[in-house]
Specification:
- The protein is of the alpha/beta class and 515 residues long.
- It has 2 domains: 427 residues, Alkaline Phosphatase, subunit A (3-Layer(aba) Sandwich), CATH 3.40.720; 70 residues, Arylsulfatase, C-terminal domain, CATH 3.30.1120.10.
- 30% of the residues lie in helices and 16% in strands.
- It contains 13 helices and 18 strands.
- Strands 1, 2, 3, 4, 5, 6, 7, 8, 9, 10, 11 and 12 form a 12-stranded mixed beta sheet that branches. The protein has a 4-stranded antiparallel beta sheet with strand order 15-16-17-18, with helices on one face.
- Strand 15 and strand 16 form a beta hairpin.
- Helix 5 runs parallel beside helix 8.
- It is globular.
């Protein structure tokens, strides 16, 4: 069987679980013709472990002309939040719900954006990383996506996704799929970022010919470790990071201030506890680590350009909402340790940027992936919808990725169900961003909540309460005046801190989050 674009892979046939009812198909066909003309196509793109300040339009030095174009033609969100971790973010994004770890991140009491939009007549496709399971009840092909191609697991080798992980990472062989079949072999010129784009572009071309609206979800693995990039992309950045991570943060912070992304009263946060001294570092190797990371982001941007070109060539760009975000902040993990004998870039090695670069990628904020200080949960979010979204604008609307389901439901003229396939469905927890996209105000969230691996947070208006599992106490911040979280006000406002902590525990009990 032919796989997207130029890639041909060997498939292992698996049981086919694709059992869409004839009723739903007939219903979708009957309503799609009457509503397609006034409902947008939706392309939702997500990066993996991308820092808040990595891309050009959020202060980064990495060359991202296509994302910069989206920002110039659309709106940038200053306060868009994710869940600090890939699995919980992906679960919330596709379900519009806070994570339910005890009941399963993709339970039978939930529906996906794909399932909801498909019942409203949308064609649906998912290209890239899934990471929410591959059983009969969690496989993307069974959870609302007409077409699927990509990684069913977490991180993988970019040049050969089924190459086993190194021993220090557990030696696992990652699962890769195409629709309901398993992909087991890859050609010599394979690279995940390109292959995911091939499938997304093919979906856009195929769906555009039908005249029905479509939802194309693209989940890149870039720039998640292992650090794998093409030599030509790496060469572009070699030597550009010899200034070190502290200077990188200062430069990014200055650009963010110049473009109006940040309040000038917010101070650049202090050095992270896991960072180390640039003067004592292996500078050439550290420069290479960050150069490869930048190359991965650059390549992703090149491929986003291919998606934008496909929309233009199919004549559907005008009525397509394109959204972009990251699943969590930059990553400070360092599997395999700080081994300068491991060469970042080629497929033979498995490396990561480590805590110093990973922290710097989230300038000006504190912390990174897995932590719920602003560096772990803040994402660049860009939305372009020609003639609807005002170009080259920014918004301070406090938003969360649970809002994306509600947004798609409203724009797609769909119905979020009380029950689905005979099962009762949890009530939607997100609030539509449609008014914000149209330049209007909305009644937003009174509270937002987070938990991951012992780290906790709740935000209510200007107040944010944070529990760092290493510090082991509640910290209270006024994130309107101090979003870089430098002035802990818990002692000054103990009643406020206690009330917010009580709200967090009530939320954790309701959703099954641990404490």
């Amino acid at each position: 069987m032919q796989i997207p674009g130029r890639y041909h892979c060997r498939l292992t046939t698996a049981p086919c679980w694709h059992t869409v009812s004839l009723f739903l198909v007939a219903f979708a066909v009957s309503i799609s013709a009457s509503r397609a003309e006034d409902r947008p196509n939706i392309v939702l793109i997500m990066a993996d472990d991308l820092g808040f300040s990595d891309i050009g339009c959020y202060g980064g030095e990495i060359d991202t002309p296509n994302l910069n174009r989206l920002a110039k033609e659309g709106v940038r969100f200053r306060q868009f939040y994710n869940n600090a971790k890939c699995t919980t973010t992906r679960a919330s994004l596709v379900t519009g719900l806070y994570p339910r770890p005890k009941g399963g991140l993709l339970g039978q009491d939930m529906v996906t954006i794909g399932e909801v939009l498909r019942t409203a007549g949308y064609q649906t496709s998912l290209s890239g990383k899934w990471h929410l399971g591959h059983s009969k009840t969690t496989h993307p092909f069974e959870r609302g996506f007409d077409r699927y191609y990509g990684l069913l697991d977490g991180c993988c080798n970019f040049f050969n996704p089924v190459q086993p992980d190194p021993a220090f990472k557990g030696g696992r062989v990652r699962k890769f799929g195409h629709d309901d079949q398993e992909v087991t072999e890859f050609p010599a010129d394979f690279y995940t970022t390109d292959a995911f784009t091939d499938h997304a572009v093919e979906s856009i071309e195929r769906f555009s010919r039908s005249g029905k609206p479509f939802f194309v979800h693209v989940c890149y693995t870039a720039p998640h470790y292992p650090l794998h990039a093409k030599p030509k992309d790496i060469a572009k950045y070699r030597g550009k990071y010899l200034m070190g991570w502290e200077e990188l943060r200062r430069q990014r912070h200055a650009r963010q201030l110049a473009m109006g992304l940040l309040d000038p009263h917010w101070q650049l946060s202090d050095t992270d506890s896991e960072s180390y001294d640039w003067d004592t570092a292996n500078k050439d190797w550290e420069d290479l680590r960050m150069a490869v990371y930048a190359a991965m982001v650059d390549c992703m941007d090149q491929n986003i350009g291919r998606i934008l070109t496909a929309l233009d060539e199919q004549g559907v760009a005008k009525n397509t909402l394109v959204m972009f975000l990251s699943d969590n902040g930059g990553c400070a993990e360092e599997p395999g340790g700080r081994n300068s004998q491991a060469i970042p870039g080629p497929r033979e090695y498995y490396t990561a940027v480590g805590p110093a670069w990973g922290w710097a990628q989230n300038a000006p904020f504190r912390r990174y992936k897995s932590w719920v200080h602003e560096g772990g949960i803040s994402t660049p979010f860009i939305a372009r919808w020609p003639e609807v979204v005002e170009p080259d604008t920014m918004t301070d609307e406090m938003t969360h990725l649970v809002d994306l389901m509600a947004t798609c439901v409203e724009l797609g003229d769909a119905k979020y169900p009380h029950s689905y396939n005979g099962r009762e469905i949890l009530p939607l927890e997100g609030i539509s961003l449609a008014p914000v996209l149209r330049g209007q105000s909305r009644s937003g969230h009174q509270s937002l909540f987070w938990e991951w691996s012992g780290n906790r947070a709740v935000r209510q208006g200007k107040w944010k309460l944070v529990w760092d599992k290493l510090v082991k106490k509640w910290e209270l911040y006024d994130v309107v005046a101090d979003r870089t979280e430098l002035n802990d006000l818990a002692t000054a406002y103990p009643d406020r801190a206690k009330a917010m902590a009580d709200d967090w525990f009530a939320w954790a009990d309701r959703t099954g989050n641990k404490y």
